[in-house]
Amino acid sequence: MTRSSEPLPDLRRIMIRSVNWIGDAIMTTPAMAAIRAACPDAEIAVVANPPVAELLAHHPACDRIILFDKKRECKGIGGFLRFCAELRDERFDAAFLFQNAFEAAIMAFAASIPIRVGYRTDGRRMFLSHGLSPSISRGLHHTLYYLRLVERFGMTGGDRRITLACTPEEMDRAGELVPHRRFAVINAGAAYGSAKRWFPERFAAVADAVFEEFGLHPVLIGGLGETQIGAEIVRAARTRVLDLTGTTTVRRMMALIARSALMITNDSGPMHVGAAFGVPLVALFGPTDPEATAPVSAAALVVRHSVECSPCRRRVCPTDHRCMHSITVDDVLEAARAVLRETKPPSASSPA
C-alpha cells in the first residue's frame, strides 16, 4: 500500500533523484534543504544528469553527486540496469523522487530502496512506498510543489530559499573572463524553446542603454545552440558587447552571474541562477506562467503583459508571438532602474 502522509523513520543514507532541467533543479533546493535540516547526520546523494550534476556541486544540502548519463555509461536498458545495480550496492534507506517520470520510480524500486517518496504521476503509484497525489500541490509555485512533497513526510526545516554555491576559485576564474569590474549579464536564450525568447534587436537596445545609463558593460551568456542569437545582438548593438554565448560551462556561467551587477533574462535556467545569488534581475515572461516559475528573489522583477493566449506553455509560438512582442525596451529599462534602486550591487566574493 502506498502511504500518503506519515513521518519517516530515522534515515542515514538518502538518495535524491533530481529533475533534468537546470531551472527546475534550482527550484528543488528548498526541499533539499528541508531534508538536510530534518536529517542533519544523514548522507545525502543526488542522482543527476550532467548539467544538473554540475549545477549542484558544492551545494550544502548534498554530500555527493551520482552521475546518471543516459548518453554514455547509462545508455539503453543495459546501462540503466547496471546503474540500478550500483545504486543497490549503496544500500540507501530512502529515495526522494523530485523527477516525476516513471523511470525515476523504477530506478528506486530496482535499487531495492525501501522508502520511495514521490508524486503519484506517470502511472508509477505501485512503485512508490510513500506517494502523494499531484492534485494536492496543483497551482503552487514549483518551489512549494517540491517542498510540499517532502514536508508531507516530516522533512521540515531550512529557510525555504533557493540556494546555489560557487567556490572562491570559481569566482576568481569568472572574474578573469570579464575585464570589467561592473557588468550586466544578458541571457537572450531559453533552452526550452523559441517561444520564451525575446528579440535580439531589443536585447541589443537594452545592452546599449545598460552601458550608457548605468555604466554596466554588457556580457552575453547562453548555450551552444544560441550562438547565432549572441552574434545578432553583437551586430545590432552600438556599444561593445562581450559575447560568451556557447563558451562557458554550467559552473562558469553560475560564477559569472553571481559576480554581475544586473541580469536581464528570458524565463530560463540562468534566470533562476541569478535569483539564487540575489543578483538584481529583470525576467521577461511570455508563454509561461510566473505564478509557477517566477524567480524567487526580492531582487527580481518580472516583466509580462497579459494577452489572451498566454500562458500557453508552448515551445514554439504557432501564431504571432504577441506575448513577447508586447514587451518593450522601455518596459525592461524601467524594471532595471527599479531593481537597481532597491538593491545594492553584489560583492565580487564567493557566495558559498
Automatic annotation (TrEMBL):
Q: Which SUPFAM superfamilies match?
A: UDP-Glycosyltransferase/glycogen phosphorylase
The organism that produces this protein has a lineage beginning with: Bacteria, Pseudomonadati, Thermodesulfobacteriota, Syntrophobacteria, Syntrophobacterales
* GO-annotated cellular components: cytosol
Q: Name one GO biological process term.
A: lipopolysaccharide core region biosynthetic process
The entry assigns this protein to a family as follows: Belongs to the glycosyltransferase 9 family.
The record's keywords, sorted A to Z, are: Glycosyltransferase, Transferase
What EC number(s) does the entry state?
2.4.99.24
Q: Which NCBIfam families match?
A: heptsyl_trn_II
What's its catalytic activity?
an L-alpha-D-Hep-(1->5)-[alpha-Kdo-(2->4)]-alpha-Kdo-(2->6)-lipid A + ADP-L-glycero-beta-D-manno-heptose = an L-alpha-D-Hep-(1->3)-L-alpha-D-Hep-(1->5)-[alpha-Kdo-(2->4)]-alpha-Kdo-(2->6)-lipid A + ADP + H(+)
Answer yes or no on keyword Transferase: yes
Supply one GO molecular-function term: ADP-heptose-lipopolysaccharide heptosyltransferase activity
Kindly provide the name given to this protein in its UniProt entry.
lipopolysaccharide heptosyltransferase II
